[in-house]
Design goal:
Blueprint: E1 3-8, H1 18-28, H2 33-56, H3 62-69, H4 80-94, E2 98-103, H5 117-125, E3 129-137, E4 140-141, H6 143-154, H7 156-162, E5 166-173, H8 180-192, E6 197-198, E7 211-214, H9 225-248, E8 257-263, E9 265-266, H10 271-286, E10 290-296, H11 331-340, E11 344-351, E12 359-360, H12 362-368, H13 370-374, E13 383-391, H14 398-406, E14 412-413, E15 417-422, E16 425-426, H15 429-452, H16 469-480, H17 483-502
Parallel strand pairs: 1-2, 1-3, 3-5, 5-6, 5-7, 8-10, 8-11, 11-13, 13-14, 13-15
Antiparallel strand pairs: 3-4, 9-12, 15-16
């Protein structure tokens, strides 16, 4: 079984050493979500009581309370970040993955150098995926999480081991808009730059950036039901994609991996397209198992999304265009089938320093993909990466915007591919070529794994219109009429056909 490691990045960690092992046994003993809820309520109360016993009731200053807390054995209680992580690990366990836990505070003391890194290295090397949970500090991760990422980056064995492994994140803030999403976005960028692949929470909580939990005072995490759901969903999502990757390593396709390149911003002279076409051609020469299709959308007419209260307008098969905008000149109306017929996606743009002759359809395109997302993630489970050709002083942040938008399509996110242009040439061309070639290899593994596991019930992902009452009511009516079931049957039949048509028979 694949093993998912939960990494707790809280200075208030209650579990470490043998307490991490007993925690895993306790998680595995929880039969359902009600049992999970009761367990978290009990364990976070224990941790709150620890703070009282450590001197809060006596009115001791917090530095003394903290020193007293450090004397604990580490075998009971849960901090808020640990509790959210437990919910996520429980979700991973329910998806038939082995789970493990490590608290970082013993390895990275409050002051001084890190200790026992050989032990931490062993724990990391024994994992197939990571879930990182920690508090929000000023809209960003805490220093323990930062120290852990630096350790992964700087340790040669760990850096090589995590390459291609799956990551999911959880952020705990004191209020609903307490920086959880910015924390996860920044960590998404940095973790993919470590060559890991990133996923968000699962479709049941609308596939966003990961677990987003509201908890301020010690012991309050179980009071946030939506945060609980996003945490569980993150664990489930990490587990499923880890299993996809493992399956993908055991098979192959009879045909080529189809990678669509969506060019959404370019200069009047089409410099971006020229660079990208050459890059794709060079990768195809190096890897005959891949086929790129460069789609230049910069001159296309794209109507603005009108934010329908029900989107898409009806329930049906994924190859069917069901956005309410039917104008024949609209890109999506004309090219829907071509857009969804791919194994992986490169979201591409050219970013010059002088943007006066720049043609960009990026924002209109992204907002129109709303109907693709809400149509049960029809481009989900694909490997996605930003591909940006940028002049040195362009100072655009498109690659970050691309990642934050497209991970919401229930995709698997690869690190950005960025070519740096100076004086009419790409100065890091060889590096860009190597990275794009590796992207193509990873895309094939994801595609094989996706197809091999296409018979799993978990593949029937449904968009959950959280916050959209009218849309939820329409979905309920469609379900009662059998439309949802009919659509699922069509999708399963399509997947079965893809298995027969594309997988190598062993």
């Amino acid at each position: 079984m694949a093993k998912i490691l939960g990494v707790s990045c809280s200075l208030r960690n209650a579990r470490f050493g043998s307490g991490s092992d007993s925690l895993i046994d306790e998680i595995k003993a929880l039969d359902d979500q009600d049992a999970l809820q009761a367990y978290l309520e009990n364990q976070t109360r224990i941790r709150a009581a620890d703070f009282i016993e450590a001197g809060r009731e006596e009115g001791l200053p917090f530095d003394k309370i903290y020193r007293n807390l450090k004397k604990a054995k580490g075998d009971q209680g849960l901090s808020n970040s640990e509790a959210a992580l437990v919910a996520s690990l429980w979700g991973a366990h329910r998806e038939d993955c082995e789970i493990a836990h490590v608290g970082l505070s013993p390895f990275f003391p409050m002051n001084g150098p890190a200790v026992d890194l050989d032990e931490l290295r062993k724990i990391v090397l024994d994992s197939d995926g990571l879930i990182i949970s920690g508090p929000v500090y000023f809209g960003d991760r805490g220093s323990l999480a930062q120290s852990f990422l630096e350790f992964l980056r700087d340790d040669p064995e760990c850096a090589e081991h995590v390459r291609g492994k799956i990551y999911g994140g959880i952020a705990v803030g004191a209020k609903r808009n307490g920086g959880q999403e910015t924390t996860l976005i920044y960590q998404l960028v940095d973790i993919t730059n470590l060559n890991m692949l990133a996923v968000g929470n699962d479709s049941s909580t609308t596939s966003q950036y990961g677990g987003t939990v509201v908890a301020g005072d010690v012991g309050t995490m179980p009071d946030d039901p939506y945060g609980m759901k996003t945490s569980i969903g993150t664990g489930m999502r990490v587990a499923r994609v880890v299993q996809v990757m493992e399956a993908g390593a055991t098979g192959d396709l009879v045909d080529k991996t189809k990678i669509s390149v969506w060019l959404l911003q370019d200069s009047a002279g089409h410099e971006g397209r020229s660079y990208i076409e050459k890059l794709c051609a060079d990768v195809e020469k190096a890897n005959p198992d891949v086929s790129f299709e460069v789609m230049d959308f910069t001159q296309e007419e794209i109507f603005r999304c009108i934010a329908c209260d029900v989107c898409p307008v009806d329930t049906g098969p994924p190859e069917e265009y069901r956005c309410i905008i039917k104008n024949g000149g609209d890109l999506f109306a004309r090219m829907h089938e071509q857009l969804v017929d791919c194994d992986a996606i490169l979201v591409a743009a050219y970013s010059p320093e002088d943007r006066r002759d720049l043609k960009s359809v990026y924002q209109r395109f992204v907002e129109r993909t709303r109907y693709l997302r809400r149509d049960d993630y029809v481009i989900g489970e694909r490997l996605v990466a930003p591909l940006v050709i940028s002049e040195l002083n362009a100072r655009q942040n498109l690659h970050i915007r691309m990642m934050t938008s497209f991970i919401r399509h229930n995709s698997v996110m690869h690190h950005s591919l960025i070519g740096m242009e100076m004086e009419g040439r790409i100065i890091n061309w060889q590096r860009l070529l190597e990275q794009t070639t590796k992207f193509a290899e990873t895309a094939r593994q994801v595609t094989v794994g996706r197809i091999m596991r296409s018979g799993d019930a978990s593949i029937d992902t449904h968009y959950n219109p959280v916050g959209y009452v009218i849309s939820a009511e329409k979905r309920s009516v469609d379900a009662e009429k059998g439309k949802v079931e009919d659509s699922d049957e069509i999708r399963r039949a399509n997947r079965d056909q893809e298995v027969r048509r594309r997988l190598v028979r062993g």
